[in-house]
Amino acid sequence: MRIKDKVIFLFIGLGLLFVSLNRHSRHPIFNYHSQLFADKAGYHIYFPAWFYYDMDARNLPDSISLKTGQGFWIKDSKILTKYPIGVAICQLPFSLIAALADEIQQIKSPLGFTKAHHLALNWSTAIWGTLGLLLVFLTAIQFWNLSYSQGYLLIFGVLMLSNLLYYTTRDCGMSHAYSFTVFAAIQYLLMQIQTVKKINNSSFSFLLILGSLVIVLRPLNLLFIIIPLLYIFLNKNLWKEISIDVKPKILYVAITLAFVPIVLQMSYNYYAFERLIADGYVNEGFSNIGQVNLLKLWFSPHNGLFIYSPIILIALVGVIKGWVNDNRWGIMYLFYFMIISLTYASWWSPGLGCGFGHRGFTEHLAFFAMPISWVLKTISKSQQRWWGICFTIIGILLFIVQYNFDGCWPESRDWDWGLFLSYFKI
Predict the structure, then answer these.
(1) Cis status, amide bond into 261, omega within 30 of 0
(2) Closest to 421 measured CA to CA, from 296, 301, 267, 266
(3) How many helices (DSSP H) and strands (DSSP E) are in the chain?
(4) 162 Cβ partners below 8 Å, 6+ apart?
């Protein structure tokens, strides 16, 4: 990276942090707009439960489940959550810093849910999100043959022409920004392995650990990302030329580290549900499988994918361009898109409840960045200027909408365009 690039990404990180802190400075803790509320509290509860309360619900602060939007619940003195442990693992360094800050300030209650722990989520998500954008940028420059200006146009589009900004700033504490970065890291490592034609100690170790994080962040994504990973493996057919140079000692250490998150999740499952492998979503399922409505999933103002993440349209155009240019394996990204769409359209809540746009696609922007790059690298420098202007206008409009959005769309108003247009105000 050039010095200029390092400065730019420093400002990107600071910008994300500023927007995130500004959004949440307007609301007190224990408010439905706060960082630790509903789903976010369900992801976070692992840290205070283990660190402060010995996994015993009787030790929790009074009514803390109710105050945090019932993202977790209590049964027979157990602290129960349906959300996997991956987000808590990603946030761990920041949670520890928050705990230290509370200790220094001698804050005694409500431990694990103090202002410092709320702010820790702002810092954590902004830093993870910036790292993910950096990895996509480096992948584009080093392996997809984009120029620096095209690389910046790519990450600007991925961030601003989607709901990634929302889940990196407004709904920080959800799994999506963390999964986005994990996916970007996996993609970068596989591209690097293809280029150097060697799997060494570090790449092998990181791939194992990142694969483990995929499982404990959002297990369903393990099924989805098989398709872009297959594309990376099959497209250039280089894997038979790749050598493996991993020392046995490193192999054992990497496997042990990769198993730690999975063992932690299984331990919690046994504590909470008396099963090593448990489904926290057992009472939710694919009840819409017989009445799939893709038009609603894609185009409804109620979390419609293309309305809030128009950058995905460019990815689909990239698939077509790839096909025309004899990149026949690129059609796998269309299957990738359709499998995600059909899965969520079959879910009991196709829009996935409260949120800005369809968050089921947010983390997958890391992989959709590749077909987007097929489009961007075909445009000239003069065209890039116009693309940049269009991206900026659309990005500003989406930013205005997400800044005014209250967090939940009324379920009975799926096609209420008047309500959607009402968010365009300054």
Answers:
(1) no
(2) 301
(3) 20, 4
(4) 308, 309, 310, 311, 312, 357, 362, 365
| pTM for the structure as a whole | 0.95
What is the secondary structure of 64-127 as a DSSP string? Answer: HHHHTTTSSEEETTEEE-SS-SHHHHHHHHHHHHHHHHHHHTT--TTTTSSHHHHHHHHHHHHH
Residues 122-163: tens digit of each pLDDT:
999 999 999 999 999 999 999 999 999 999 999 999 999 999
Q: Show the tokens assigned to 96.
A: 């520890």
Report the C-alpha gap between 47 and 50 in whole angstroms.
5
Contact predicate 120/91, CB 8 Å: yes
User: Of 282, 308, 297, 300, whose CA–CA distance to 394 is shortest?
Assistant: 308
Show the DSSP H helices in 325-407 as ranges.
Answer: 332-346, 365-376, 381-404
Distance between CA atoms of residues 27 and 198, nearest Å: 50
> What confidence tens digit (pLDDT) does each residue in 81-103 have?
999 999 999 999 999 999 999 99
* DSSP letter string, 386-406: HHHHHHHHHHHHHHHHHHH--
CA 80 – CA 46 distance, rounded (Å): 9
Task: 55-61: list long-range contacts, CB under 8 Å, 24+ apart.
Answer: 55/79, 55/271, 61/109, 61/110, 61/111, 61/113
- Selection from 90, 67, 69, 99 nearest residue 176 by Cα: 90
